[in-house]
Amino acid sequence: MRFDEAYSGNVFIKSHPNYEESQVVIYGMPMDWTVSYRPGSRFGPARIREVSIGIEEYSPYLDRELDEIKYFDAGDIPLPFGNAQKSLDLIEDYLDDLLADGKFPLGMGGEHLVSWPVIKAMYKKYPDLAIIHMDAHTDLRENYEGEPLSHSTPIRKAAELIGPTNVYSFGIRSGMKEEFEWAKEVGMHLFKFDVHKPLQEILPTLAGRPVYVTIDIDVLDPAHAPGTGTVDAGGITSRELLASIHEIAHSDVRVVGADLVEVAPIYDHSEQTANTASKLLREMLLGFVK
């Protein structure tokens, strides 16, 4: 991969022009080839960048400014339309290169399956990796109508790779009965409906460990994020999600990478969802990168 030239399109606000000097690399994974309901999340990364110009550079929550961190927006990974396996392979190769260069990866999806190759790359570097997963859906299916490469399978794949006891899912309110039963049987940590309170209880047990954070925007109630492929009623508020990000930021866990996925701007003409995602990414940058 070449990272020596800045992305020529819109970039996330205050992106640094030099890859080598940057601690963090922001990148897009514009893939929605396996969605089972509404496509459109492949346009999420571009729109999040475009609306980021409207957010402030200062976080009153964390009392930090974006100028305090050097981050490089590398643009979107060029993925072959419709070819899920090749796309996943390209994402994993891309992450291998970022991690070899010592960069903190901050990804934007795309459907949630894009997190799977990222987690594979992270696990190669951090064999004691733990995952914090915030989502409306379990994503624990083995396949969707016979297809193992599906946006409903990434957390199952991750749990089988790193061990289910190292996966912590929060805000879950939708999934097949078999998925919930499997999580219970194998000792995976799955917390239904809420995020912030159970997260507070879990974080001390992860102190010092490398943690990858993956957030599906549909963990938010549709009232707060209508622009996503699979909306699900009964979610948390944007305020609770922000508080949860800050809880991680103030904890003793070692966040080594993160992503935010499933923003599908076509379903939200108000751009509320993209703007919320942009603010969440700002807080993740300022909170997770020390």
Automatic annotation (TrEMBL):
* A UniProt-annotated Pfam family: Arginase
A GO molecular function term, named singly, is:
agmatinase activity
Identify the EC number(s): 3.5.3.11
Tell me which PROSITE patterns the record gives: ARGINASE_1, ARGINASE_2
Keyword Metal-binding (UniProt): yes
Q: Does the keyword Transmembrane apply?
A: no
List keywords of the entry alphabetically: Hydrolase, Metal-binding
UniProt-listed NCBIfam families: agmatinase
Please give the family membership noted in the entry: Belongs to the arginase family. Agmatinase subfamily.
What protein does this entry describe? Agmatinase
Source organism (scientific name): Niallia oryzisoli
